[in-house]
Amino acid sequence: NISGALCISQAWPGMAQTIYNDHKRLLETYLTPFPGFFFTGDGAYCTSEGYYQLTGQLDDIINTSRHRLGTAEVGMLCPVLFQNHHVAVAESAVISYPHEIKEEGKMLHFLPLKHLSWGVGTAETLPAELQELTSKKTAEYAAPDYVQVTH
Prior knowledge:
Layout: E1 2-8, H1 23-31, E2 38-46, E3 52-57, E4 61-64, E5 67-70, H2 71-85, E6 93-97, E7 106-112, H3 126-137, E8 146-150
Parallel strand pairs: 7-8
Antiparallel strand pairs: 1-2, 2-3, 4-5, 6-7
Helix pairs in contact: 2-3
GO biological process, one term: acetyl-CoA biosynthetic process
InterPro entries: ANL_N_sf
Protein name: ACS2L synthetase
């Protein structure tokens, strides 16, 4: 039960060997932060049983209404929040998109629904329910402005 940076200790066939016209950037970004390991840029959670959950990019920040929110933090919070407090949600992902009023962007959650939950709420009511749930359980500024429900 530990969280941290996802690093890989051995080479694999699909790993990057350089960044076009910027090999120094590859070295500084992926090989220097954790010497002897390839840093993927992602955070991960490892359970006591040895299962890994990717939690998102560690350096990805969403600026919304003067609040800086890490996608990894929100990405970890929302699945726990939604899955534990709403019967219809299987998992979620968080991204930002351009917004002319709230600085750089707002949050967007993609939510696949649990197969057996089709009788719970509708695609029209679920986004509002999840926005309200996030506002109550975390903070109003952390609530998604747009929720995309996937099936």
